[in-house]
Amino acid sequence: MCTGSGWTDTRVRAGERWEPPPPGGGGGRGGGGAGAGVGAGRPSARPHGPLSSSVNDAVGLRVRSGILEQTGATAGVLQSDTMDHYRTFHMLERLLHTPPKLLHQLVFQIPPSRQALLIERYYTFDEAFVREVLGKKLSKGTKKDLDDISTKTGVTLKSCRRQFDNFKRVFKVVEEMRGSLAGNIQQHFLLSDRLARDYAAVVFFANNRFETGKKKLQYLTFGDLAFCAELMIQNWTPGAVDSQVDDMDVDLDKEFLQDLKELKVLVADKDLLDLHKSLVCTALRGKLSIFPEMEANFKNLSRGLVNIASKLTHTKDVRDLFVDLVEKFIEPCRSDRWLLNDVRLFLNQYSASVHSLDGFR
């Protein structure tokens, strides 16, 4: 039954939390004639309690889709059928909390392709919502803010709760697991590769508590930050730094962060700073649209980058990583009207030139 109607897809696409029906609620089959309540969108057999508005909204949506005319059903039958779907979804939701159970259960005859659809849609999230909670602790304190987040983003409160609970559930399952973070999520929640990697970014940000809510960071989308998370997981975690270590992707490698402190010599030693600048400028002369600005501001930019890197052994500085990058590097580049390609060329040459310096070869 749950796969025979387009209502399954409609409910999941809407991103609503599937709420259980109230005890004794729901209308019986066959109540009311075809003309009763159809025009007004209020079928005669109405459920009672907190679920009534959701069911009636769903019935109204189905009426407007023309299903009564297509099937010849009465409004009462439509009401009863919709309530049946809600009851079914209530039972399905428990299985969706642990997706492998959905695959192995025998109660619901759901084709594999539709099972995959249900799982994917249930765990899909709104970018506007995730952007508001990204980097925050997935705790009761944050959950209390969901009313305000719902108002700010326009995402329904039910959907906000579902998405938050999904983030928290995934986090709890994988936070202590070794190996690939995205791989663990994909294995235990049967998500697509893309969605698993997005959840990996959410877990990574929540674990390291990166600050993303400051006003100056609001121009960054979830996609921007997820891209950063993926690169950091690939390059800054224990397993990434040492291929022989099968460690957790959620943590930054402490030895790697400690090693970054050695970069301070790049700005503390005047001769080394001048030599580094000379190497970068020689390589980029004629290649940057803002070469004069880069040459004049090189030392300030270098100090900004090195100071950020050398302080990442402190928890607070890790949390403020993106704030510091915007303040000390991105905003100065933006004020000098750097193009994206200018930034890319500069950073590539900046890091490559270091290997030509004594002590870094």
From TrEMBL:
Coiled-coil parts of chain: none
GO BP: any one term: platelet aggregation
Gene Ontology CC annotations of this record: nucleus
Highest taxon of the lineage: Eukaryota
Protein name, as recorded: FGF1 intracellular binding protein
Annotated Gly residues bias: 25-40
Residue stretches of biased makeup (Basic and acidic residues): 10-19
Short name of one Pfam family: FIBP
Region (Disordered): 1-56
Cross-referenced InterPro entries: FIBP
GO molecular function: fibroblast growth factor binding
